[in-house]
Amino acid sequence: MRLLHTSDWHLGRSFHRVNMLGAQATFVDHLLAAVREHRVDAVVVSGDVYDRAVPPLAAVELFDAALHRLADLGVPTVMISGNHDSARRLGVGAGLIDRAGIHLRTDAASAGTPVLLRDAFGEVAFYGLPYLEPALVKDEFGIDRAGHEAVLGAAMDRVRADLAGRPAGTRSVVLAHAFVTGGKGSDSERDITVGGVASVSASVFDGVDYVALGHLHGCQTITERIRYSGSPLAYSFSEADHRKTMWLVDLDAHGAVSAERIDCPVPRALARIRGPLEQLLADPGLTRHEEAWVEATLTDPVRPAEPMARLCERFPHTLSLAFEPERAPEEAGVSYARRLAGRTDQQIAEDFVAHVRGAGPDDDERAVLRDAFDAVRADAAVKEVAR
């Protein structure tokens, strides 16, 4: 059986205020084209269909259109909810949609109830484990002190129990949305440490042929049979080096896995550049980034004037600007009290301005500071006399 494994669509999400709905629609077109081109037998979507619990209407419309198009192809699709989704909202109408070959699994109670699909070698059981928030599902699994590994382990116990009662040779696929130990995260994933330690051991998934993971946005292989597809689009500059793909997975008659990556469309390249402003504006080696979405980190010791406007003249798609001035390190081992010894209030204030800004105050700013200190002293003197 040939599977197309994807996850983390995050429909409705923007990228540094850039609307990504058009790029998400292009990805859906690409997904449908890949299903046809590679003669896919089933599509699996491992959570975070939407970016938030109440998605914008345009995102809902795109998802609705995607479901209709998948159903029209006649290729079964299995989906689970992720930690960004509202399981209840995503699961509305799941029973009816099931009849069209779109199988939504958003309820923890259904962990041990598979979607059964058949190929020339027999049945393949697909078990959908939606994102399991320990505090919300511990009662379902009869666990007193629940963590992520405990609830996923309990859900997998149900999977293995159901699989044990099926005919010998039944192959199995598990969809899960979790942080598995050994995976590499990025800045755009929502933290799931609430309810205990976030990561779970890969051994939790022992006993099944393939585990289609969602949550981490980088495509990666935990083991040959446990893989993250990653998100089809980048949602943070920490993903600048990601190759965005889907997994095309073949399960043979005995459940052995072979997999290859199918590249996703890239709406615009990402670039992270760093250095003094003048260097970034003049460096010929950065020409390749002029049409990219850019995150720039300026290292000038003094913050330059109008840095964003000047950057955008060369890099018109600059979306993020940060300052990390490179300055001489302070003398090691010298206490704060010693650094202040013998200095006036005015000098200390001027030193602070220089430390924060990279350059000390000009004459007008010194006058403002002097007037401020004089006013404070005068006020203190009046209060002292009043006593």
UniProtKB/TrEMBL annotation:
Instruction: Give the CDD domains listed for this entry.
Output: MPP_Mre11_N (cd00840)
Q: Where in this chain does the record put each Nuclease SbcCD subunit D C-terminal domain? A: 267-355
Q: Which domain of life is it from?
A: Bacteria
Residues forming the Calcineurin-like phosphoesterase domain are 1-218
Q: Which InterPro entries match?
A: Calcineurin-like_PHP (IPR004843), DNA_Repair-Maintenance_Comp (IPR050535), Metallo-depent_PP-like (IPR029052), Mre11_N (IPR041796), SbcD (IPR004593), SbcD_C (IPR026843)
Which SUPFAM superfamilies did the record assign?
Metallo-dependent phosphatases
Please indicate if the UniProt record lists Hydrolase as a keyword: yes
Query: Which GO molecular-function terms appear in the entry?
Result: exonuclease activity
Pfam families recorded for this chain?
Metallophos, SbcD_C
Record keywords: DNA recombination, DNA replication, Endonuclease, Exonuclease, Hydrolase, Nuclease
Q: Give the similarity note.
A: Belongs to the SbcD family.
Q: What does this protein do?
A: SbcCD cleaves DNA hairpin structures. These structures can inhibit DNA replication and are intermediates in certain DNA recombination reactions. The complex acts as a 3'->5' double strand exonuclease that can open hairpins. It also has a 5' single-strand endonuclease activity.
Quote the subunit structure annotation.
Answer: Heterodimer of SbcC and SbcD.
Name it.
Answer: Nuclease SbcCD subunit D
UniProt source species:
Streptomyces fragilis
